[in-house]
Amino acid sequence: MPVLTRLIPSPVVVDIRSGALDDLAGLLADQRISASGKLAVALSGGSGRALRTRLAPLLPGADWYEVADGTIDAAVRLADEIRGRHYDAVVALGGGKIIDVTKYAAARVGLPMVSVATNLAHDGICSPVATLDNDNGRGSYGVPSPIAMVIDLDVIRDAPARYIRSGIGDTVSNLSALADWELSQRINGENVDGLAAAMARTAGESVLRHPGGVGDDEFLIVLAEALVLTGIAMSISGDTRPSSGACHEISHAFDLLYPQRAASHGEQVGLGAAFAMHLRGAPEQAGLFADVLRRHGLPVLPEDIGFGVDEFIRAVEYAPRTRPGRFTILEHLDLTTDQIRDAYADYAKTIRS
Ligand SMILES: [Zn+2]
């Protein structure tokens, strides 16, 4: 008999609202997550302390672990510390770094992981991928996606606005990544998972078309939901294809070539997406991207994040090497340095006018 449906790996609880943190203890007591109340909570030594003070009385069965940084070493250390202590689950309380370290550590010891995101900087908050710094720079590791996802809008509003902006760039870039995926389907016959594409596109379009901004709750809810949907889209496709294409290759190139000066992930992938749209011969889409990014205070030109034109061209040229095997508009066009220079000049002229 053919398979009638398929199960989607996804969190058993998604709680996005003001005050969600106050009910975290109740959520964790859910029998599906923690029957005994014995939990490991990972957080940063800096900004995490205030949250620990607030939550410790509500979680009497929790042990608290401070995570030093976003390296694979920190993740392995956390796994070693929590191993064999009979926890029901591991809770990550923090931003992307803490969540990625915790995802990896939880996978290593075979425990479910609860994601409590304190900012909306990127789509890793609910994804099956842990991005960690290692000896070779940065690596992406496949892990189970979180069993529960909590986003308290009161906490998000307290985080610097640049973290929200970064999340906007990351969700909008889905649309560029999907165009790359569909291009590869046309040229190479690569399979596009229609459900993963639908979720990633809905997430990207909802943020791109929303009239609100970082200061209003309706917009924050749409953005938070878009990040969660994007994470689930990655779980469905089994890779980062629905949310990562030329936009991300360009951003990875910035990270590798200029590690000390790189801007935030969302700033770089948003700029990369607008430029990739231009390369596709979609000037209206590129213009719409640029308008939306500008409206939210995100960069649209390399100079907006302190890079010269030559540095940007070098990053675009280097970009395909960051994800060997991934086919995007960059691999398709295979531009020479001079062609990239001409394309950039055209892009800058188009979005300035
Ligand atoms: Zn991303």
TrEMBL record:
<keyword id="KW-0443">Lipid metabolism</keyword>
<dbReference type="GO" id="GO:0008654">
    <property type="term" value="P:phospholipid biosynthetic process"/>
</dbReference>
<feature type="binding site">
    <location>
        <position position="127"/>
    </location>
    <ligand>
        <name>NAD(+)</name>
    </ligand>
</feature>
<keyword id="KW-0862">Zinc</keyword>
<feature type="binding site">
    <location>
        <position position="170"/>
    </location>
    <ligand>
        <name>glycerol</name>
    </ligand>
</feature>
<dbReference type="InterPro" id="IPR016205">
    <property type="entry name" value="Glycerol_DH"/>
</dbReference>
<keyword id="KW-0520">NAD</keyword>
<feature type="binding site">
    <location>
        <position position="123"/>
    </location>
    <ligand>
        <name>glycerol</name>
    </ligand>
</feature>
<keyword id="KW-0479">Metal-binding</keyword>
<feature type="binding site">
    <location>
        <begin position="96"/>
        <end position="100"/>
    </location>
    <ligand>
        <name>NAD(+)</name>
    </ligand>
</feature>
<dbReference type="InterPro" id="IPR032837">
    <property type="entry name" value="G1PDH"/>
</dbReference>
<feature type="binding site">
    <location>
        <position position="265"/>
    </location>
    <ligand>
        <name>glycerol</name>
    </ligand>
</feature>
<dbReference type="GO" id="GO:0050492">
    <property type="term" value="F:glycerol-1-phosphate dehydrogenase [NAD(P)+] activity"/>
</dbReference>
<protein>
    <submittedName>
        <fullName>Putative glycerol 1-phosphate dehydrogenase</fullName>
        <ecNumber>1.1.1.261</ecNumber>
    </submittedName>
</protein>
<dbReference type="Pfam" id="PF13685">
    <property type="entry name" value="Fe-ADH_2"/>
</dbReference>
<keyword id="KW-0560">Oxidoreductase</keyword>
<keyword id="KW-0963">Cytoplasm</keyword>
<dbReference type="GO" id="GO:0046872">
    <property type="term" value="F:metal ion binding"/>
</dbReference>
<keyword id="KW-0594">Phospholipid biosynthesis</keyword>
<keyword id="KW-0521">NADP</keyword>
<keyword id="KW-1208">Phospholipid metabolism</keyword>
<keyword id="KW-0444">Lipid biosynthesis</keyword>
<feature type="binding site">
    <location>
        <position position="248"/>
    </location>
    <ligand>
        <name>glycerol</name>
    </ligand>
</feature>
